[in-house]
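Collaborator request, handled under Task 6.
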Amino acid sequence: MRTLLCALAGAALLPFAGCVRGPEAALRIGTNVWIGCEPLYLARELGYMDPKAVQLVEYPSASEVLRAFRNQAIDGMVISMDELFGLVAEGLQPRVILVVDVSHGADAVVARPGVLSMKDLKGKRVAVESGALGAFVLSRALASTG
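Structure tokens returned to the collaborator:
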């Protein structure tokens, strides 16, 4: 009889098992190697950000961060405004929740020793991240020198 009562009590409580809230997954924020992301890593290092609540996911490039966001592998990301506008143009609806920095023209074209001007790049191989600000900066720099 006692076993039957315990079984019935357990069966009566079974529908409520789905009401128990499990531990929430950490918020996954995509970053890449860029100085604008560093305050997040510093906050984590200094203990201001709980790694159980927020997980920083570092990707090798901004394009990879965007791909992860499109594929819903991350919940948020640190990107530039031009990349944000590209996502909106694709029909996605990202929301800006924090502006981490403001650019004052720090973008640059960087070359190996011996390349002294944009004209010295003629005939050379140039790497650029085509889906991000890099392509715009390079095209403007090339156009300005003919």
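The cover message to the collaborator said: "The radius of gyration is 25 Å. Residues 133 and 139 are 10 Å apart (CA to CA). Please let us know whether this matches your experimental observations."
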